[in-house]
Amino acid sequence: MMNPNINEKDKRRIRDIVQDFARKHSLWVLAYGTGCGAIEIPPTMTSRYDAERFGIRGSATPRQADVLLITGYLATKTLKRVIRTYEQMQAPKYVIGFGSCTINGGMYWDSYNTINALDRYLPVDVYINGCMPRPESVIQGFIKLQSLIAEGKADGADKYQENLEWYRENQKKIIHNWKMPDYNW
Amino acid sequence: MLDKDCNENKCAEQIKKTFQTAEVEVKREKRVTVQLRSDLIPPFLSFAKEFMEFKHLSHMSCVDWVEDNELELVFILWNYEQQVQIIAKTRIERVNAQFVSVKKFWNQAETYEREFHEMYGVNFVGNDRLGEFILEDWEGVPPMLRDFDSIKYSKETFYQRPGREDAQNVRATIAKHSGEEVPGFAKDYTIRNIED
Ligand code: SF4
Questions:
Q1: Are both B96 and B170 inside the same structural domain?
Q2: Which pLDDT score is estimated for A8?
Q3: Does B161 share its domain with B185?
Q4: Considering the entire predicted model, what is its pTM?
């Protein structure tokens, strides 16, 4: 019998807590290596550091993935593909920015074709700094993401939807030839 | 020291005999450099390939000599039998740079030419695939030319996250700590302020 003292709002929260608990223990990461940092992913996933202990696994396609891991610098050309990939992913979805390049451009800050701040173009839930971050810090970043999910604070995808215009404006500023399908999500 | 009639010297002699205006130099073991007029490059490559057995084009590159208002094209050839490398260089005009395609000698030259077209703006006559290659929707000065200002472009195009203003020049700081003398010519590119 349901406790009659719990109101509508709280009921939703209980459902969310259960959902988020399940979500945080099964993070499927899209295997899409962008910068040099991707080289730290194999040791993270394989037996030495064994990220599967935390429910972190690779997934083959964007539609099956929960986490988009941006492993380093993004050329404007790659950014276009990454945006497309991100928009194809099904909610709930999260973005992790991996390495200094995603934060402030890292050592490619003065390059003519790499972006300098990923969060201007995609909603980043967690940043992991380092050039490149070792598997320990990668796993630490994932644990941070898990705790954000558990608290219901990993809401980057909602923010993206709400502020789509702002993101689109930034994206179109550097991607001149915008020929992309409109996804409904 | 190289033998008088080693493979390197023999190659150099043969080139000198055939192309009298060429400046040929045996740099060291296995390495010969040839400086040529730009219109002599196709006959030279053909000669090297057909008569001197330089079957392999291992590399092509482009150098921007903005001070001389010229671009330099470099062709690196390799001879498997004699184990000799030829580095053939030529200079072309920098504005409206144009050159003949050497695709007919080596097919792989096509890819290099596409790259030079995109990165340096060189037009290779005879190469029909000089479209967009690595960059996407690039407009303006080809980015590998030295008068393209990458920092300025990046600052104008991409959002710059604040926080780099107080970044130290690592090289200068280390030199100051250790009292190291950095020669004047090296200062230009090692100890320069991040602002300029
Ligand atoms: S942060 Fe460092 S390791 Fe990562 S992509 Fe940038 S340069 Fe490469």
A1: no
A2: 61
A3: yes
A4: 0.83
